[in-house]
Amino acid sequence: MDIGKKIIKSRSEYWKGLIDELKKYENIKVAIEKPQENHDKLQKQVKYLNEQKQEILTYLQIAFSFINTINNRIYYFKGFLDQFNKELNYRNILLSSKLSNPFIFIINNNDDGKKGKEHQDNDLDR
Fold first, then answer.
1. H helices then E strands: how many in the chain?
2. For the chain, what percentages of helix, strand and coil (3-state, to nearest 5) are there?
């Protein structure tokens, strides 16, 4: 009978121990719920921040594209302006070389007008 009592006692102790463990597990489960909620919140924030990061990267790619396009146009117009200035300088050199032999006009307004008038008066008298 001693063995039977031990088995019954050990069974009751086993169930009692199991119930105590389950009670502890319930407390652990409650203790885990709050950190799990925090983890879920953090996961949502990480997802939101990753979406914002992707959106910002998209805007950066668009900005770099605009910068490259503007840069290419600036270099195009700079080349165009350099060519225009080169042609303008060439024309100025040609023009200055043509004007290097200036024409000199001498106008004498002294008595030529009076002589011409007298000459015309004499022609009218005849």
1. 2, 0
2. 90, 0, 10
Distance (Å, whole) CA 28 – CA 111: 130
> Rounded to two decimals, what is the model's pTM?
0.44
12-27 core/surface letters (b: 16 or more CB in 10 A; e: else) = eeeeeeeeeeeeeeee
Cα four-point dihedral sign 81, 87, 91, 96:
positive
Mean pLDDT, to the nearest integer, of 50-74? 96
Per-domain residue ranges of the chain: 2-125
Tell me the C-alpha distance between 43 and 37, whole Å.
Answer: 10
Say how far apart CA 85 and CA 111 lie, in whole Å: 51
DSSP-derived secondary structure letter, 92: H
Q: Chain-centre distance of CA 93, in angstroms?
A: 43
Quick: pLDDT tens for 91-102: 877 766 665 555
